[in-house]
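Two proteins were folded this term; both appear here.
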Amino acid sequence: MDRVGTRLKQFRLTHGWSKRRTAEELGVSIPSIIRWEEGQSEPNDYNRFKIERLISARTKEADPVR
């Protein structure tokens, strides 16, 4: 199973976002982003939901329906 931190980092780098911007969008601290991306910890259920929602929403914006 793909870790949420790995998907978050891939999303962040693909979209050219800094850790600061990502943290601000999710309403968390920069150290939280670092810990999740490096696999030092996993986000709680609420933050996991916010991450999945962010990734899903931004991916849909980038991939318009044909």
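Next, the second protein.
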Amino acid sequence: MKPGKASCSPISCYKPLAMTKFCSPRPARAALLTLALGLSGCSLFSGSSADSGDNPQTGTQLPPGALYQKGVTEMQSGDYDKAVKDFVNVEETYPYSTWSTHAELLSGYAEYKQMDYDDAITALNRFIQLHPQNDEAAYAYYLKALCYFEQIEDVQRDQTTTYEAISALDDVITRYPDSSYAHDARIKLRLANNRLAGHDMAIARFYEEQHLYTGAISRYQDVVTNFQTTTFAPEAMERLVECYLDIGLPDAAVRTASVLGYNYPGSSWYETAYGKLKAHGLVTAANQAQAGSGAVAAVPTPKSSPWYWPF
């Protein structure tokens, strides 16, 4: 077989099935592995390659399949920077070839692997814009979401990237709701929302410590209203009880504690809130008897949803 001539068509060589059928938390890694297996049966070029895209035997530009394979080989060996250069070379030199389409996607993947997230997002956006109906568009959207997700900062820092990750993850879920990418995106979306809730809680706790109750209450209410399914919701409600007691709003404190008990009856946060109400003389003998029997004291009747809110 002549150097540069593939033993099968570009389309049949390129069959990264894991890009469309993946259930593991690490789709990107599995997709690359399957891609490598799919390409292993295609003899694209013989001999060694120089760092450039030139044919080592003739000094001329390698054909698209050979140049693409060179990038794949370098990517498999962990030399992502060289792989990106080869994939970009395929795009620029052979822009109308099938190899170019695949190279655009793997260029974004290689940038992602070396944590050049901005460049990866740029490459993936270009792929999505040029090939919106491509079979691997779902993977491109998912990989773009990963680029944002893996840049999420600690709760003490700015959460702009978290909002971008949530938007990108929502995009995957909305566009490809039945895909395995959407399944993983939903998991990561819960984690991202938990991070936003944690950010609000960190700010609210600071405000409360400084006796800035208006700001603290606003942040705690935001967690209860917008992040009900996160792990921070019961704590936010208990903290609201504290704030209401500190500013002299016992009725609001009792109502909030009741909602907390209704939604999280076995929570340690409810026990803490109940203890504080008791310390302020806001628990009647009947309430104590209910609590002692395992029932929840002073539970309001839910209206349209179990989340009853006093304000």
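Residues 23 and 180 are 5 Å apart (CA to CA). Residues 1-29, 32-52, 55-59, 295-311 have pLDDT under 50 and may be disordered. These notes refer to the second protein only.
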